[in-house]
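Homework help board

Subject: predicted structure for assignment chain

Our instructor gave us this sequence and asked us to write out the predicted structure in token form, then describe one feature. I got the tokens but I'm not sure how to describe them. Can anyone check?
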Amino acid sequence: MSKPKHGFVDLRVDKVLVWGDYLLARQQNRVFYTHKDKIEWQSFPVRLLDFALDEDHNLLMGYDDSLRLLVFSSPTQYQLLTEERIPTYPVDIKMVNGTVYMYLIDCRLCKANHDGLKCCTPLTSDYPIKEPRLVQKGKKLQWGAEGTHLYIAEKRHHWYREAELDFPIANLHLLGDSVAILWDTKQNHRYSLLSHSAEPYSLKNPLSDFLATPIRSMTITSGSNGCFHSFSQSITFTVSTDSLLTASLIQQNNGYKGEKDSAIELSVSLPQLVRILESINENPDKIPEIKDFDITEADAQRYRKMLADQRKSKDFSFDMVVLDDGGFYDSIPRLLQSVEREEMYQALTMGEGITSTTSYWFNITFVNDNKETCTMSSSYYLTGNPWFLPWLVSCDDLYFNCFNIELSRFLAECLPKDFSGRKAFDNAILIKKIGDYYWRKKHN
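My token output:
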């Protein structure tokens, strides 16, 4: 069988299925079909990631890149199995008599049909609970977290499961023995042992303690790791006068090429940086509006050129929609003034939709005179978020997402134009991200 043709080369077909008069194949997380009598591979009208067959009813079930469960009576005719979406990606799926059974990557079992979707975690009392991955010690109690599970233990006693939450716990910060702040990589939650429940929580002045002491240095680092490469660049700015941070060296760390450090002369305003950090401290949850980005016609022109170059090259890319989108992406600059704040938030927090063995990062580390640190970082697989928003801020064992465009503009001014990752500081990338959001919204 010839491989489905969609612009990729030398990629394996990892799943096939005979469905009545059709053949199905999955390649690089995309599902294709063809009639058995005439091999002409085509994409489904939605981007399916996986599929299963109900043999008793000859119905095809699949889930798409927005985790909707869909039932197909033909390759072009489908309906929702349920309005509820799968909470995370399945490892394996099977459909029997109109019901879909799934084993999810977070070890939950899930079943779905027209009556709805239910998930549960298999538990056993045959073994004691091991020490969780995250542990914080209070005066009398210990708190622990592993995945979506929250645990409690009295000192020198066994752990017990306090709750299974509907979000993963990435960080745990105690406000006392009975209250903790839980971070899920997108927002904070306040969990109380009195109510045995979690509620959304906004941090109040999270940088105050750090900013109480003058800043001594700022280090900007960008890099990448993969199967056959590892590199990073970093620039450290230190206080030279009361009003300036200066840097004189770009440090190179390349395990394969052995590139040498290079001399530079850079200086930025320390008071300007402090004002930006104080602004973040006052309003850490502020989401920018489209007008805050000051998008110009020059930005739109760079965006159009970016689309034209990508369509012309047809190089290996996961961003295939712009190659055959019927002019959809060309219309985005005309829609920018109507982008609402909530849509901006959704666009900036929308995932890339891929994973890879190659990853990239862009980090800023601030150090004050007490040698306390505050870090702001962004990580990605293929294309960094525009202006690297949101920044993941870590300070005093607390985490939050920061959408401050002024911080990103300040950092862009700090860096030489050829610094790794600097191209993300561009409104053309923002316009493309907004286009991706509207494209997914349209097709989901």
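Reply (TA_rk): Your tokens look well-formed. For the description, you could write something like this. Residues 13-120 form a domain with the Neuraminidase fold (CATH 2.120.10.30). That's the kind of observation they're looking for.
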